[in-house]
């Protein structure tokens, strides 16, 4: 078959790109060897956030007596919880299939490999020819020799989300986004959790300021999650029924399961990249130009394959932008403004520059902050821990970055993303009437603070 566009990979980048291409009148094929929706929908974002929401009820029930409400101790029906989580995934996967079919995308269930000159060979014996080929094969958990996934004691994030058991003791190797999110979920489920991070700080690859990190670390400690930074896990000694994680400082941690969460790597193996002339950079990403084209003309890469944060919404945004570029619209730098949302307790979200990054870039800036404890809504929700922070240019008050740590931060960050993309100023946020009592008032108050006119906090 011959197509205008052939997309390899049906994750949040691939299927979105396919739908937009079809909407633009391009004959489009989407090749996916596993389930539609990719890692995010099936084994990542969606099951993680479903379990995050479900397990939050456990914490609320445990402390409800503080406000005069009492419940019987909650019981966890793990098979039923897992079934519910899988149901959420199945519903969304079916929705993706419906959207693709409704937009006229040809979905091919097979593994694809570049064959050169616009050709793609399929594991089912077929071939596809296309003027443009989009690589959107996503990423996979990184495995290290000292903690092989083949050992039943070692979990990948996929294993942890399968929800087959609740280990009494869980050792999490890696204090990044995935490690901390799953540590939060399993602690709520009742596991004793220890997080082991090689680098000097948690979330070291995320551009966050010290205040946000400090609030999160205090909260993790309050939740009895033991976080050890600057600590190397060298290996483990299998035992029955548990294992002993060996640390470089000579200490040992007993664990019933070991979650290896040291990052993800792009899925570039067996795609025929080398034969097609597609180059990979030193970090393992597919090299692309500003228009997401690889070193081979007519072959493009998006999502986790392309340099940048490995986030589903980044992949989707690139998929749409790339499809639009096929219709003649150039990809702009504004489309590369990617918010980050981390589902710890409390949540952490950011967009744009941190205070430290802005200063490192030599910018003269204004910084405003407002605590969650100053919001009536936050107190009424029993969610007083957190902070809003806004960073802006001193000369024209244009907003450069926002960080929010606290309840519903993942929802609140979108207003900030719009503001930064639109080039809005502190005044635009501060002078916009926000409904009361709500959490978004915190962003308004932080903008007022940056302007030196805060009403509900004392500027220090």
Characterise the protein shown here.
- The protein is of the alpha/beta class and about 450 residues long.
- It has 3 domains: about 1-140 and about 265-335, FAD/NAD(P)-binding domain (3-Layer(bba) Sandwich), CATH 3.50.50; about 155-260, FAD/NAD(P)-binding domain; about 345-450, 2-Layer Sandwich (Enolase-like, domain 1), CATH 3.30.390.
- Helix content is about 35%, strand content about 25%.
- The protein is built from 14 helices and 22 strands.
- It has helices at about 15-25, 40-45, 45-65, 80-100, 155-160, 175-190, 210-220, 275, 310-325, 355-360, 375-380, 410-420, 425-430, 440-450, and strands spanning about 1-10, 30, 105-110, 110-115, 120, 125-135, 140, 155, 170-175, 190-195, 225-230, 235-240, 245, 250-255, 255-260, 265, 300, 340, 350, 365-370, 385-395, 400-405.
- Strands 1, 2, 3, 4, 5, 6 and 17 form a 7-stranded mixed β-sheet that branches.
- Helix 1 (about 15-25) packs parallel to helix 9 (about 310-325), helix 3 (about 45-65) packs antiparallel against helix 4 and helix 3 (about 45-65) packs across helix 6.
- It starts with a strand and ends in a 10-residue tail after the last helix.
- The model has no long low-confidence stretch (mean pLDDT about 95).
What fraction of residues sit in β-strands?
15-25%
Main sheet overview: 7 strands, mixed
Number of helices: 14
Give the low-confidence spans: none
Summary?
The chain has helices at 14-23, 38-43, 45-63, 78-102, 157-162, 177-189, 210-222, 273-276, 312-326, 355-360, 376-380, 409-421, 426-430, 441-450; strands spanning 2-8, 28-32, 106-109, 112-116, 119-122, 127-135, 139-141, 154-155, 169-173, 192-196, 226-228, 233-238, 243-247, 252-255, 257-260, 264-266, 299-301, 340-342, 348-352, 365-371, 387-393, 399-405. With 460 residues, the chain is α/β, with parallel strands linked by helices.
């Amino acid at each position: 078959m011959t197509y205008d566009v052939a997309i390899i990979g049906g994750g949040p980048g691939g299927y979105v790109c396919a739908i937009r291409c079809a909407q633009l009148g391009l004959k489009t094929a989407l090749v996916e060897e596993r389930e539609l929706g990719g890692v995010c929908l099936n084994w990542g974002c969606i099951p993680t956030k479903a379990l995050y929401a479900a397990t939050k009820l456990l914490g609320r029930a445990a402390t409800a007596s503080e406000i005069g409400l009492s419940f019987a101790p909650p019981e966890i029906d793990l098979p039923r919880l897992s079934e519910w989580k899988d149901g959420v995934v199945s519903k969304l996967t079916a929705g993706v299939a419906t959207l693709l079919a409704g937009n006229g995308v040809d979905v091919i269930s097979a593994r694809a490999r570049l064959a050169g000159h616009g050709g793609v060979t399929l594991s089912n014996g077929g071939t596809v020819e296309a003027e443009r080929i989009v690589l959107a094969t996503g990423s996979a958990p990184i495995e290290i020799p000292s903690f092989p996934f083949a050992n039943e004691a070692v979990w990948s994030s996929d294993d942890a989300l399968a929800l087959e058991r609740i280990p009494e003791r869980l050792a999490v190797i890696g204090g990044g986004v995935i490690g901390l999110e799953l540590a939060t979920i399993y602690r709520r489920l009742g596991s004793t959790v220890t997080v082991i991070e090689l680098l000097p700080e948690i979330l070291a690859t995320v551009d966050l300021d010290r205040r946000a990190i400090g609030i999160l670390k205090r909260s993790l400690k309050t939740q009895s999650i033991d976080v050890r930074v600057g600590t190397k896990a060298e290996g483990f000694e299998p035992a029955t029924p548990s294992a002993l994680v060996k640390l470089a400082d000579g200490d040992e941690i007993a664990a019933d399961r070991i979650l290896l969460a040291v990052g993800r790597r792009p899925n570039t193996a067996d795609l025929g990249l080398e034969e097609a002339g597609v180059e990979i950079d030193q970090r393992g990403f597919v090299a692309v130009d500003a228009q997401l084209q690889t070193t081979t003309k007519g072959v493009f890469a998006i999502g986790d394959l392309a340099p940048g944060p490995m986030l589903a919404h980044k992949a989707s945004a690139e998929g749409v932008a790339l499809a639009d570029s096929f219709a003649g619209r150039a990809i702009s730098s504004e489309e590369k403004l990617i918010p980050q949302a981390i589902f710890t307790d409390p949540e952490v979200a950011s967009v744009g520059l941190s205070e430290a990054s802005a200063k490192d870039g030599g910018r003269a800036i204004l910084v405003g902050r407002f605590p969650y404890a100053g919001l009536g809504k936050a107190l009424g929700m029993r969610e007083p821990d957190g902070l809003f922070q806004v960073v802006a240019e001193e000369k024209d008050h244009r907003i450069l970055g926002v960080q929010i740590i606290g309840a519903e931060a993942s929802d609140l960050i979108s207003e900030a993303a719009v503001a930064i993309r639109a080039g809005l100023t502190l005044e635009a946020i501060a002078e916009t009437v926000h409904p009361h009592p709500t959490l978004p008032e915190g962003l308004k108050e932080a903008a007022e603070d940056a302007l030196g006119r805060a009403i509900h906090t004392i500027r220090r």
